[in-house]
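hey so i finaly got around to running the thing on 2-isopropylmalate synthase from Frigidibacter mobilis. pasting the sequence first so u can double check i didnt mess up the copy paste, my clipboard has been acting weird all day
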Amino acid sequence: MTDKTHSPAPGAVAAADRVLIFDTTLRDGEQSPGATMTHAEKLEIAALLDEMGVDIIEAGFPIASEGDFAAVSAIAKAAKNAVICGLARANDKDIDRCWEAIRHARQPRIHTFIGTSPSHREITKLNQDDMVTRIHDTVTRARNLCDNVQWSPMDATRTEHDYLCRVVETAIKAGASTINIPDTVGYTAPRESAALIRMLLERVPGADNVIFATHCHNDLGMATANSLAAVEAGARQIECTINGLGERAGNTALEEVVMALKVRHDIMPYRTGIDTTKIMNLSRRVSQVSGFAVQFNKAVVGKNAFLHESGIHQDGVLKNVETFEIMRPADIGITETNIAMGKHSGRAALRSKLADLGHELADNQLNDVFVRFKALADRKKEIYDEDLIALMADSAANT
Ligand code: KIV
Ligand code: ZN
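ok and heres what it spat out for the 3d tokens, dont ask me to read them lol
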């Protein structure tokens, strides 16, 4: 172990209300079984993320394969604005390979990690002191290569607090400017997630000079809530993926945390740099290239997230869209209609839909089409514009 103590990288401390968005779709997301993407697809997704305003793109795990190395290198060379980050375990070979892959980026970052909880220490056969030495040495090595180093104690939420403080302090002293606190197995809950960040900020010397990040998995469906709770406690970087893609139940969904911060700015006064109008396009592209369909009722980007079928809801949104919508579809880049015609739809929605299709109906004609529409909707799950045009023709021929 050397005695060298690094000062934090320049620019480590962000504005108090600015939350950095760290996207790991191409690393943690791609670790979903079956989500492998091609080189060209990774480059395309990275370019879209960069354009959308993601602050840091975790482009891959360079030591994992030749393909990963090539993809991370190509993304590093192509990125225009985002910091490009590669992942490395806590050993010299991983760190050197990671640096090789990202070194041509305008803003490179090495992200190195080690499991610190009791079960991880058992697997790595390192006692507490030996692990501290390893952390010091590997973070120092990374920092000697790159000004921007992120360090993660994997399984932080199941690591003893005293030990967690000790390892975090070690990483900061060795030169890490971002400390990521992963909830690797999606075990924590919002109050605990906040308390953990608060505890680290209070107890660890030097904590004020680094950015704390939150990295949540969704095993209990709490990743978004846990990430936001961590931000309220002082974390200023959220690690997330498009559509919540990721191992097992996935990671925090980028679209959820970004839109939650936008829509509820009144109670969570933090900013991101994301152009939210690009969210839907990215969601669709990631779904296509990963082969992972987005569930219909997925928050923000699900097919049904902005669709209204019941008569009461349709009538409400036709009169005042805020009755049943807390965000505008256009805010995430949706241009399609928000009215789904089905058996729960009412007269007002049918009249409005037919008007959109160029048919202004008198009341008696509307009554006739409405009866035909209800009969069809009882038999058919989704009613398309073509169905309505056919109904209009039937009505005209038979009345
Ligand atoms: O979930 C996790 O702990 C990780 C680390 C590599 C940061 O993905
Ligand atoms: Zn993870």
